Amino acid sequence: MSIHIMGTGSALPGRVVENRELEGMVDTSDEWIRERTGIGSRHVSTGQTVAELAADACQRALEDAGKQAEEVELILAATCSPEEAAPCVACQVQSRIGAGNAVAFDLNAACAGFLFALHTAWAYVEAGIYRNALVVGSEVLSKLVDWEDRSTCILFGDGAGAVYVENCQEGGLLSFVQHADGKKGGVLGGGARLLSNPWAGQQECQPFFRMDGREVFSFAVRQVPLNVEEALGKAGLGIPDVDLFVLHQANRRIIEGIAKRLGADLSRFPMNLERVGNTSSAAIPLLLDELNRQGRLKRGMRLVLSGFGAGLTCGACVMEW
Ligand code: ACO
User: What is d(CA 206, CA 250) in angstroms, rounded to the nearest whole number?
Assistant: First the structure.
């Protein structure tokens, strides 16, 4: 038993922030950002919440699959930027789209979150517990970004991407791998809430994302190819068998480095980071939805999805579309 993606959806806030606009806020330039990252603009929330974006993406994924919300049995929301600790984003999505029969909960593995949630959906379906799931990655990272820090504010964007998956007897998700290295947690993180009880002393907190960019860069270029090869090996496939590599959209140079290490032509690595930046857990399903709506995904095509992020976390899966 496996899972098959039957529909995709996405949602982006309407406000687009071009690199040029950031030039007036921090000491940077459009040229620098494009050359070092490949990013040209990003969408930024002017009020939309993680749950609103997630619900819109899920609604579109259901429409694409031709399914009704009441049929959904499981909703998994991957996010590292919820507005509130509770209720979870997945429960808010359930309420917004009217999926009253679904169980719903969140999962946080930062930029690898969508992949880990997809693998979790697979595990529930494989165990025979649920027959279908909505899996969504949604982020409003703009509230965790220090807009005075040029090394991070240029990178991130807001948005959501979702897939509706159903059980299948053959094809679908063929294999996956996932890894975590908590000892490297200091490389990338932030978004702390202060301890405010009467017994706590003075607290130090890191409200914004901080990142060792070079460390993340080399981790991604080193680790993603290993994950991809490991997942392909489990599926009994090799690099030539893959039609498209749908990777986490963090930086064009990272993707170029991964393609080179894998010995695969860059044309097999679709990218949308030029327009949306790094949307963390939303990045992979957002790109999948774009490819799907452009008619670039044909049934039977073999895809590799791979993500990496804070934690550090990373993983990959192989699927037949
Ligand atoms: N504009 C202009 N100059 C800048 C900027 C900027 N926005 N940011 C940094 N610089 C400067 C630095 O201060 C440094 O100056 P110095 O030489 O005088 O000290 C110089 O540019 C080079 O800085 P580096 O950090 O070495 O630049 P690098 O080429 O490594 O690019 C970047 C930085 C883009 C952050 C890169 O390291 C990167 O992409 N890393 C991965 C980041 C990433 O993907 N993070 C998220 C992944 S996980 C997740 O998605 C949650």
Answer: 22
- Render pLDDT for 123-156 as a digit per residue (tens, 0 to 9): 999 999 999 999 999 999 999 999 999 999 999 9
Residue 200's pLDDT is what? 85
- Active-site hit among 58, 248, 251, 317: 248
Residue 40 DSSP symbol: -
Protein residue with its CA nearest to atom 31 in ligand 1:
36
Q: Is 285 exposed, middle or buried (0-12, 13-18, 19+ CB in 10 A)?
A: buried
Residue 278 bears catalytic tag: yes
Residue 168 annotated among the catalytic residues of the structure: no
At 71-117, the pLDDT tens digits run 999 999 999 999 999 999 999 999 999 999 999 999 999 999 999 99
Residue 303 beta carbon below 6 angstroms from any ligand 1 atom: no
For residues 90, 311, 261, 240, the Cα torsion angle rounded to the nearest 10 degrees is: -30
Average pLDDT for the chain: 96
* CA 82 from centroid of its chain's CA atoms: 14
- Cα–Cα dist 88/262, whole Å: 38
CA angle (208, 159, 57) in 5-degree steps: 140
Q: What is the pLDDT of residues 14-30, one digit of tens each?
A: 999 999 999 999 999 99
The response to whether residue 309 sits with its C-beta less than 6 Å from ligand 1 reads: yes
Say if ligand 1 is within 6 A of residue 151 CB: yes
